[in-house]
Amino acid sequence: MSAPQLKILLDSHVWIDFFVPGRSGSATATRLVRSAIEANAELLYSSRVLDDLFYEIRRDAAEWVRASSGDMPKSAARLCHDYAWGCIEDLNDIATAIGSDDADLQTALKLRSLSEDLDDNLMLAAAQRAGVDYLVTADRVLLNKATVAALAPQDMLTVLQMGL
Question: What's the mean pLDDT in 112-138?
Fold first, then answer.
């Protein structure tokens, strides 16, 4: 297997779209992750968003159960919890975590003049730390203020499909 050609950081909402079927971005996120793997790209995620991923995936799964059955039996709640854990395990198998430390906070503070959104600034700090080729996000504000090359999921999918 050859070395990864691209380093791609997916923001948390792209990962949630990948793991939770039925969301508006699910189909694109699924094609994007599959195409990145086929292209031998290195997929990345910020380790600081793991708890958000876990709880949002579990919540979305529970909402689906409630919408489907009108109820949330204890056994179904346990399955939603286990599903979220399985998604985190799968994430660990297909992507690499970008850690964070005080340097990321310092970067985020410097970016405050660009944006007041701490989460966005910390995502940009993670992208800079990892030296990514692309940050992929559906957040239009983040796309417009990114200090690294940033693309919407569909645009990144197009790049991968064109073999760029």
Answer: 90
